[in-house]
Amino acid sequence: MERIVVLTGAGISAESGLQTFRGSGGLWEGHDVYEVATPEAWARNQKLVLDFYNWRRDDARKAQPNAAHKALVRLEQEYHVSIITQNVDDLHERAGSTEVLHLHGELLKARSTRDPDLVYELGDKNIQLGDCCELGSQLRPHIVWFGENVPAIYDAMEIAVEADILLVIGTSLNVYPAASLVPAARNARTIFVVDPDMPAMVQGDDSVGCIEKTAVEGVPPLVEQLLEE
Length: 229
Hints:
Blueprint: E1 3-8, H1 10-14, E2 27-28, E3 31-32, H2 39-44, H3 46-62, H4 67-74, E4 80-85, H5 91-95, E5 100-102, E6 105-112, E7 119-121, E8 139-143, H6 153-161, E9 165-169, H7 181-184, E10 190-194, E11 208-211, H8 215-228
Parallel strand pairs: 1-4, 1-9, 4-5, 9-10, 10-11
Antiparallel strand pairs: 2-3, 6-7, 6-8
């Protein structure tokens, strides 16, 4: 069975109504996103950071998978599908995709500030000041903040190398190390990029199928094309 590797970015979640901070001036209630999504921000004001992620978590819980998320699930009828997402929501999982790797962490999980291997499912709860792990340290969002390493990139690289087909959906390919997954998939026989603003990395590359549409517009017909092959 051929393997399709899918790299998704904020564009696919935006069509479910989730805010993309890079495309919206980078502000949340007057705060620059770097003021609430960095280790320095956490050291400076834990409550502000927790409030930001609690708001994002509530927003994500209300959102629903869109037609692009659901179309990717259909690919599993004929292909081994691995999704690598830069998004921290769970829309891929709720749509029904069975193999999802989150590069930048997951909103619906918390982790210990003392031991990063202690990770907890939040369910319908948020994180408040005073919520502690079993070691007694404050819980933080299970998110990779700006300026932190991306541990999952190593697993993602191993997946990308095995791609027979690579789909890139709703990402500018300006953020590293995520953007390095495209050249890592050098063995793929076909690469498709779906985005209304085609990333500079692939512009003029005749080997890439460029679909200048939103995820909801472009992914369902692409999936049907791949299922017919």
